[in-house]
Amino acid sequence: MPQVKELLVDTLQDLLHAETQLTAALPKMAEAANHPKLKEAFEKHLMQTQEQVARLEKVFQLLGEEAAPKPCKAMMGLIEEGQETIQEGQAKEPLSADLALIAAAQKVEHYEIASYGTARTLARQLGEMESARLLTHTLGEEESTDFLLTMISDPLLQQATLDDLGGDVNLESVGKTARATTKKRPTSK
Ligand SMILES: [Fe+2]
Ligand SMILES: [Fe+2]
User: Fold this and answer.
1) Is residue 165 one of the residues assigned to a domain?
2) Residue 183 falls within a domain, yes or no?
3) Ligand 2 centroid, distance to 22 Cα (angstroms)
4) What is the pLDDT at residue 166?
5) CA-CA 20 to 30 A from 164: which of 66, 109, 124, 178?
6) How many angstroms does the Cα of residue 180 sit away from the middle of ligand 1?
7) In Å, what is the CA distance from 133 to each residue of 12, 117, 120, 142?
8) Residue 59 domain boundaries
9) H helix and E strand count, the chain
């Protein structure tokens, strides 16, 4: 197989395994989520992930290659960490548990964004424009999910900060803390 096509097929095989594992992990994330918006986000992304698996299978078909998954150790590790986050969350305040779940989920999204970005670049290089279009569709869903998770975390983080300040709420210090927190948060792309 030509080397660039081989790179693409390797990336797709890795992604197929990663996405398939996620279809099993996301229901657990949804179940563990406390905030209804977070639960809903995980449930929605589960449906998207199932479509993404089908989209990957279509790309394999377009390339004339077998849709054979190759164990994705990185995603296996991220999912394992996600399981730990779920378990540790049971002893945490609901807000903290949700913020930790969001952090775990965003690591997954960023891994997917990196992989789909690479796959799309390789597909374009090969002139496989229909495959590149399908990969762009999925990449957009991963980016939107990452953005949505940041949006959901924002008020939760503000609330957790207020809770930490306890009964002794000084509005001026709340504002300062909130601003400091906002500054630290990475900007969404
Ligand atoms: Fe995905
Ligand atoms: Fe995703």
Assistant:
1) no
2) no
3) 8
4) 86
5) 109
6) 32
7) 14, 12, 8, 14
8) 3-154
9) 6, 0
20 CA → ligand 2 middle, Å:
11
Write the pLDDT tens digit of every residue in 139-169: 999 999 999 999 999 999 999 999 999 865 5
Q: Pseudo-torsion of CA 117, 102, 72, 84, nearest 10°?
A: 170
Report residue 132 as tokens.
């590149």
Is 35 among the domain residues? yes
Q: 141 CA to middle of ligand 2, Å?
A: 7
| Contact of 114 with 129, CB cutoff 8 Å | no
Q: CB 134: neighbour CB atoms within 10 A?
A: 21
Amino acid (1-letter code) at residue 162: L
Considering its fold, how many domains does the chain have in total? 1
For residue 85, is it within any domain? Answer: yes
* Distance of CA 155 from the midpoint of ligand 1 (Å): 25
